[in-house]
Amino acid sequence: MEVKARAPGKIILSGEHAVVHGSTAVAASIDLYTYVTLRFPTPSDDDDNLKLQLKDLALEFSWPIGRIKEELSGLGCPDSSIATSCSIETAKVLAALVEEQNIPEAKITLASGVSAFLWLYTSIQGYKPATIVVTSELPIGSGLGSSAAFCVALSAALLAFSDLVKIDLSHQGWLMFAEDELDLLNKWAFEGEKIIHGRPSGIDNTVSTYGNLIKFRSGSLTRIKSNLPLKMLITNTKVGRNTKALVAGVSERTLRHANAMSFVFNAVDSISEELASIIQSPIGDDLSVPQKEEKIEELMEMNQGLLQCMGVSHASIETVLRTTLKYKLASKLTGAGGGGCVLTLLPNLLSGTIADRVTSDLQSSGFQCFTAGIGGNGVEIYLGGSS
Ligand SMILES: Nc1ncnc2c1ncn2[C@@H]1O[C@H](COP(=O)(O)OP(=O)(O)O)[C@@H](O)[C@H]1O
Ligand SMILES: C[C@@](O)(CCOP(=O)(O)O)CC(=O)O
Ligand SMILES: [Mg+2]
């Protein structure tokens, strides 16, 4: 018995960080995925372990399932039909189970991801031995939502083999969940994100679950339809950072300067609302595509300025901004900042030569550039065989 799930990463067009404090943000899925395969052993395998293989990272973790049960079963019995938060007590037990696996120091940030895995697995599947294999096209810790894609793909694979979802076993190819199933899956993925991020807004798991383009505020989403073909250059500064620490830093600044920061968050809210309305405005209205793009560029620059106010820019991000400005192109960071990825709008009429020149200029500074399809499907599963 085997199921494979894939969940997309995301870009945030406007509103990261401020969305944690109640402002509106706009995000889109991208066609780079995290894949999770779940397989239960057959009796002849004679395997009583829960195994997690992180293929890209060449890491494998394994626990005798009886040991996990021994440690966790005294702490309550989670109900997979209701996404439940991991208690502080349980988090400590999970952290100890992860610590035993001796993750190499250089990869220690993965520990929170492995804890999230243990929480989601035991909450949804209980104490069954299984092998879970993870691969990803997303750079980890770069602002493209790898943590959320991991939690969403994992929740999808786990729920696919539960009584909570109905799956058409005769279906060929990638398969979507029903709307109410997606709602439960998204809630579970959010619980995983909480273990990794500390205080996530929920935007990343939501866009990875439902796909497309969304406007998100205080936990609720509005699907939006873009009438503007958006092309973004994504530049990975390759400067590593950790979302949890950056989100905590913004919260600390908010405690120190509550009044000033509330104006910053309100300004971001207005920027996101305006951005969403431009993207959705009908083709052939008062503004031409280039005029709309100019407005979007200005909003991106304003949002970037406010992200600097929040203290989440970085010297490498500033280098990308200066480089793209030489070509009159606007950029902003995406995700938590502090390094990671930067978005640059590539206007529809931009010549291929300029796009090539800005790309090679960025690459000569050691950055990695790529484009990705924006606004595709959210999480999907594939049953049986390879895909
Ligand atoms: N494929 C994966 N396997 C295991 N853990 C992962 C994977 N992808 C992400 N994670 C977890 O998410 C963390 C990175 O999340 P985060 O700092 O939010 O950055 P981002 O979501 O922008 O990539 C990793 O340190 C790890 O704990
Ligand atoms: C900074 C934030 O707005 C987005 C974080 O995205 P990422 O983990 O850097 O991909 C946090 C959140 O909304 O939960
Ligand atoms: Mg993340």
Please describe what this structure looks like:
The protein is of the alpha+beta class. It has two domains: 2-222 and 375-383, Ribosomal Protein S5, domain 2, CATH 3.30.230; 226-371, Alpha-Beta Plaits. The protein is 42% helix and 20% strand. The chain has eleven helices and twelve strands. Strands 1, 2, 3, 4, 5, 6, 7 and 12 form an eight-stranded mixed β-sheet that branches. The radius of gyration is 21 Å and the shape is globular. The protein starts with a strand and ends with a strand. Magnesium ion (MG) binds at residues 145, 147-148, 197, 204, 243. It holds the Pfam family GHMP_kinases_N. It catalyses: (R)-mevalonate + ATP = (R)-5-phosphomevalonate + ADP + H(+). One of its GO terms (biological process) is sterol biosynthetic process. It is found in: Cytoplasm. Its main location: cytoplasm.
